[in-house]
Amino acid sequence: MTQYDYDLFVIGGGSGGVRAANTAAGLGKRVALAEERKIGGTCVNVGCVPKKLLVYASQFNDQFDAASGFGWTVGTSTFNWSSLIANKNQEITRLQGVYNKRLQKSGVNVVTGSAKLLDAHTVEVEGSTFRAERIVIATGGRPFVPDIAGREHIVTSNDMFFLEQLPKRIIIVGGGYIAVEFAGIMHGLGVDTTVCHRGDKLLQGFDEDIRDFLAEALTKKGISLLFNADIEAIEKTGDAFTVQLIGGNKMTTDLVLYATGRTPNSTGFGLEALGVEMDDEGAIKVYDDYRTNVSSIYAIGDVTNRVNLTPVAIAEGMALIDQLYAKQARAVDYDNVPTAVFCQPAIGTVGLTEAEAREKYPDIDIYKTRFTPMKNALSGLDDKTLMKMIVERSTDRVVGLHMVGTDAPEIIQGMAVAMRAGATKAIFDSTIGIHPTAAEEFVTLHQAMI
């Protein structure tokens, strides 16, 4: 019998990999985890967590403006980017420590360095080799940047958290969630912000009403949206950059951020040589049990490019370990996964879009409301809120909920529980609302629009 150093070797110290490693070690398995950068992966280090901290920072400007309507006199305010980044770094360092302590407490051997697969059971990290019965790839994704003239002048979302100074002007290329989130952050911090998107609408894949509403809201705030536009070249001119658009127009800016999607981080550590199957975009192909075509190698999270969300990667990690070591075969249910976009105003959504619902069901009703939040009666702000509910008429089942507005992610999280429980429109109607809140609108949508 072949002797293994470990029962499980995890490559990638992000949320999914860490959860898989901790859970397996908690079941008494010998586990090692390799991470070449910082424990916590994208979410903790250059994603969800630091980005949310920057979102909070960018909201104070509006709150200062709103305060006078409620009787407050706010003095002259100033913003210090360096202080924000230093405080952000301190919090991220704390979270990294929490992750490391949990791994140590679980008994996971954390190996720092770049991992490479030598064969289906052997991992090499910085010259040391480790034999494992099973290997889990949880290496996540990385920002995608196209090959254009002046590519060296581009920054990605990873770089935004370590800028030495805040630019006066920024062009953000892309129309997805990263692009609109950073547009809100930069604008809120006083940066002249332009979004350049080659499509005709933001947030492809989201409900059309949400897409239209957000574009209107961002424009109203003063963010410039350039649709059906793309960059041909970037040239450094003094302390600034000249951006050449396809078609001939030029723009000058201090920073060019590309938020044009992410690509699976699946190359460079030996998967190709082992014959691990990948799709055309570089995502690792897996079966329902997260096993690749090489029976001892598994993959979870963004590297499989299915539902690229931190909580999904965590759920996949837990499901995999339960299946392998706890003999509890259970699949992650990818239906009705709630998600949020922390743009300003924020988006929360769960279930089907209207287009998806019309394609799936022959009979749907649409309930929708658009209103001014109560706070803005005195704040002087012109922000609106949009809520939308999609119902399958024949069963009365709610199949989609969408919201744009303050606290949308917090509200939709609770609504997702109701949807997963199979709530009908009648159940929503019979639920007494909490007044006065925005959330109560979801239980008082009585008149179908269609």
Describe the overall structure.
The chain folds into three domains: 6-143 and 263-325, FAD/NAD(P)-binding domain; 151-260, FAD/NAD(P)-binding domain (3-Layer(bba) Sandwich), CATH 3.50.50.60; 339-443, FAD/NAD-linked reductase, C-terminal dimerisation domain (Enolase-like, domain 1, 2-Layer Sandwich), CATH 3.30.390. The strands form five sheets. Strands 1, 2, 3, 4, 5, 6 and 16 form a seven-stranded mixed sheet that branches. The protein has 450 residues and is of the alpha/beta class. The protein has 13 helices and 21 strands. It is globular.
Protein traits:
32% helix, 13 helices, five-stranded antiparallel sheet, FAD/NAD(P)-binding domain, 3 domains, 21 strands, 450 residues, seven-stranded mixed sheet, Enolase-like, domain 1, globular, alpha/beta
> Gyration radius, to the nearest Å?
24 Å
- The CATH topology of the largest domain comes to FAD/NAD(P)-binding domain
- As an assembly, this protein is single chain
Instruction: Please identify, by name, the CATH architecture of the largest domain.
Output: 3-Layer(bba) Sandwich
Total domains: 3
Number of helices: 13
CATH-wise, what's the superfamily of the largest domain?
FAD/NAD(P)-binding domain
Major sheet attributes = 7 strands, mixed
Proportion of helical residues = 25-40%
- Inertia-based shape: globular
- Percent of residues in β-strands: 15-25%
Secondary structure tally: strands: 21
Low-confidence stretches: none
Mean pLDDT: 95
Query: What structural class do helix, strand and pairing data support?
Result: alpha/beta
